[in-house]
Amino acid sequence: MASKGFVSTLDRYDAIVIGAGVAGLTAAAALAHRSLSTLLVERHNVPGGCASFYQRDGYRFDVGATLVGGFGPRGVHRLFNAELGIDVSPEPIEPSMVVHLPDVSVTRYGDERWRGERLRAFGPAAEPFWERQERIADLAYDFSMGFPALPYDVASIATLARAFRPRHLPLLATLGRTVASIMPAAPSARLRSFVDAQLLITAQTNAAGADLAYGATALDLAREGTFHLPDGISTISVALARSIQRAGSSIVYNQSVVAIETRRGRVCAVRLGDGTRIRTSRVISALPISNTIELCPEIDHAFRPRLAALPERWGAFMLYVGLPPASVPADLPTHHQLVGAYDEPPGEGNTAFLSFSGSTELRRARNGGRAVTISTHTDVARWERAERDGTVDALRTRYTRRLEAALDRVVPGASRRAVVLEAATPMTFARYTGRARGLVGGLPQTPRNATLGAIGHRTPVTGLYLCGDSTFPGQSTVGATLSGVNAARAAIDRFS
Ligand SMILES: Cc1cc2nc3c(=O)[nH]c(=O)nc-3n(C[C@H](O)[C@H](O)[C@H](O)COP(=O)(O)OP(=O)(O)OC[C@H]3O[C@@H](n4cnc5c(N)ncnc54)[C@H](O)[C@@H]3O)c2cc1C
Fold this sequence. Notes:
It is built from 15 helices and 20 strands. The chain is of the alpha/beta class. It is globular, with a radius of gyration of 22 Å. The two termini are 31 Å apart. Residues 18-24, 41-44, 49-51, 64-67, 256-257, 286-287, 291, 316, 375, 433-435, 440-442, 468-469, 475-478, 480 line the site of flavin-adenine dinucleotide (FAD).
């Protein structure tokens, strides 16, 4: 599928994109489809980054991301794929997930059943919150359909202003506020825990931390639609990679960019790990911002203070479980979130997210078994300490037991039947995705860091653009796609 990367020091490209995660693939595809000669450089041997896959003993596991959004009528994946002529055959799934709280399970329906379900779980006192959340989300989605970018100069402010309609005015009132500001003053443990857990996986923070417009949209995931793709979430990346190559551009795998070279404040080349220097005047870095700073110290002053003020913290601990046929009820919903105890902090095994392949998906699990991906947020500093102390193995075992217990809560006895059981720590993410310290999910989407406060696609270096989940609009394959479109647009503008 890929060019094996016979690039030479003599090659010159209109643009070079670094990193074949969803953001980099999107940016490269957008450039390639505008007939710009584009080289996409990826350090791993497959595309997808945090939304990629790996195969073991007949099972194909989603490595990180599992839940597919963005294919509804207003969905970013649907709109962008239509532009490129890509069809990945998304099928809506309903319900989008079940959230298992300590004393009740809440089914996240995307249709009118959600109202009854939330009334049952959270009571009428929470209704004004849900109604406001949905109104804000509707407006934010409506506005985002124009693929807005963060404004960086007078012309782009004017473009943004043109996308803004009088009906979007209430969005201005959300600026600087958090989700907690529209919740009941003393929410029940159920409501607080449910909202916090849902925001943790979509905004990397809780209701007290999450930006209101961002968080309201993130909480709307089920209404916007959740989808099934034939090979899991990596279907998106594989299709984009094919589309780039069909458009005549190249992807080189198993190669890292080790430096972005500049001359007099302009990009002039990138250098690969094998010493190859490739000339270009446009680079899109689709890596986390902390990685890009390492490759191009000239941008350090612009971004380092932001990162110091708002440190990223979350890594992921994962369990990949291959189950034999008939070990899971055929009608089990695809996705589940678990909260262990109301009075324990989120992550670290007290919250977990589980996704199951379907019983008839033979490409994902042989003989109708199930490929299960389970994740929990974890503080990377904990793993760094364990590495220093030589206690990583013990920590891995402890977290493995916690996630096995989570699996057994959803499907009693399932962990005993596992025929594949492998764990991944933040160090595994650092190794396979190159992300600094194994940090994933981008920056927490607080008011300081979301929407107008986010890191945009511009840098102080001419010809260097950013995308990926540490830039606007933030994490998820949907956010990564939007950021890739914005960066490509800016790079294309320089050519037109
Ligand atoms: C455990 C987990 C669960 C998640 N769940 C969901 C979910 O259910 N739904 C959802 O939509 N999102 C989810 N996300 C978030 C989503 O996966 C990410 O936000 C998104 O995939 C990030 O894409 P990206 O392109 O910005 O970065 P990445 O996916 O990190 O891609 C970066 C790419 O750059 C490559 N690279 C790194 N350094 C170099 C270098 N020097 N040279 C060349 N290549 C390099 C890496 O190998 C990688 O392929 C989850 C993330 C995790 C970790």
